[in-house]
Amino acid sequence: MVRRAFLVLLALVWLGRPVVAAPVTPWETTGHFTTMAQLAEFLHGLSSRGSWKVSVQSAGQSSIEHKPIWAVRLTPPSPELKVMILARVHGNEPAATESALTLIRDIVSDQGDKAGMYRQCEFLVVPCLNPEGAEKAQAEADGNDGWWGSLGRDNDEELDINRDYLRLSTSEARTAVALYNNFQPSLVMDLHEFESRPLVAGDGWWRAEYWDLLIGAGRAPWASPALRTYCRTVAQDVLFPKLDGQGVRTEYYMLPSGSFDSSMHFASNAADYFLVR
Q1: Which of 19, 89, 148, 234 holds its CA 20 to 30 A away from the CA of 217?
Q2: Contact 25, 101 (CB under 8 A)
């Protein structure tokens, strides 16, 4: 009996790291996209656990209705890299928020085969940069049998935040840049959602029908040749082979199949802005 009790105690304090239940995201609870109220409740329910120090702050406000823009900082004991993740700059792309919350859940659970990799990084996560657009898009979907349209892509000023990282005329873009300048990350990931549909000829857009993930980075026209070469090399020689090996169908974002360089440039996309800086 004493031996059994000792083994149970040893299992509970294995290597000094007790097993902590992972938080559950609103999506996992309800099966529906997370509302802004649920987002705030989930984030405020987070706490430092295991190896991770967790802090949640209102980093800024939306342009018109002054809704909070939440930022979550996740710090392990000895990080080697800083990773910043922006999600849902377009309010009608809810999958970006769900991805961010799922990542936060996985990180703070401090378990699984990726736990060691996560502990090498300090994360700054913004689950929804455009709360005004998100609520507008949610309201449209609620009144349209769950169908998400184009409403809510922009903020309430009807400005596309994702085209504002140079002018910084929106409060949301200024918040993102201020977070970047303060955090000084090694890597920035800008999460979007792309609707799959057949290829449409002659409309100026490359539609993805069969891809799981589209990657775009380092293609701003002002980027140095060295930076463009580096991004091309990382994508073609590192990211694509690894993802393909795991069965993830991957392609460049907004480019003809297999092409990195194109005349189609989006001058102030977040990924290009932060990579250049």
Answers
A1: 148
A2: yes
